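Morning - guanosine-5'-triphosphate inputs below, output right after.
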Amino acid sequence: MIRTAFLEKPEELVEIALKRAKKRAAAAKKRSRKPELKAVYFSNYLMERLEKAAARVPSEAVLGPFAYELLLTMESERSLKQMRSHFLTAKKLLARRKGSALRGIRREREGSLKELVGRSSSVMKSMKETFAKFNSLQKKLRVLPQVDGNAKTVILAGYPNVGKTTILKRLTGSNAEIASYPFTTRRLNLGYFEWKYMKVQVVDTPGLLDRKPAKRNQVEKRALVALSHLADLVGFVVDCSGQAAGFGEQVRLFESVKKEFAGKKFVVFLNKADIAEDRQLEEARGRFPGSEIIEFPPEKGAELREFIGKRLY
Ligand SMILES: Nc1nc2c(ncn2[C@@H]2O[C@H](COP(=O)(O)OP(=O)(O)OP(=O)(O)O)[C@@H](O)[C@H]2O)c(=O)[nH]1
Ligand SMILES: [Mg+2]
């Protein structure tokens, strides 16, 4: 599980820092030491929180290559870097303020502590937007799927609206959203089934359009990230009724995805056979020469589990 933590508002952090500093300085024996201690505790608390926040901006090393690449479909690498550097720059500024306040206090300059609190508050206030971005990033981290790295994985990919999520449901009982319009699935849906006491992970992906890789949007890229990092087997789902897309487009997409992920094992699932005409089924069978094809009526989940299990293990 990825650890997430939200930040309070900058002004709330300042309040907390002040309270803690007062409390801790009150425990000091020497009265003359109190202002100095207050300044130290106040600044250190804020600096520590900023440093922790910077460390919580995820990196590839922490998330692993799959989750990190998936995160990059929601948040740019540039924005992650910026966030980290904003936190660290603010921390540095606070350190400087602390230094000059301590010098002032030692020279018994009037108002040094007050000035420190005021100036540090402005630094913190300037971080408002970064704090908000950081919190929205934490929400994104929470929706990253928790994949099982030990289970063999089949990826369901294909054109939008061909029935990928419906197949996930038939295989695993998942209740991910199914709808009669394209682009229903915008994130990866995961489900599991057992085959001969072995765990199979099924990943349903957002629909892909037949277009150049450079043209693909962030939602489509999530499917590609799953294909690239998780696939032990790719179940390419084809709507053979023509309801979702024509054969031409679906075959072209199949060819290009196969090329992009050469080395992965592909099988073709001919879906919506129940509403396809005989001639459409006949045509579909001939459109994927050299590929293994399975046709199944919607209720045959068990048959499909067997088919997949045998090819994975
Ligand atoms: N008749 C028939 N309809 C199906 C079959 N499988 C799916 N559908 C319907 O096709 C529509 C799309 O199904 P989804 O499972 O949401 O398709 P998807 O490929 O996940 O779509 P996106 O997430 O938008 O890419 C829904 O209205 C389903 O009920 C099937 O085997 N037969
Ligand atoms: Mg779907």
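Note: Residues 164-165, 184-185, 204 surround magnesium ion (ligand 2) (CB under 6 Å).

O.
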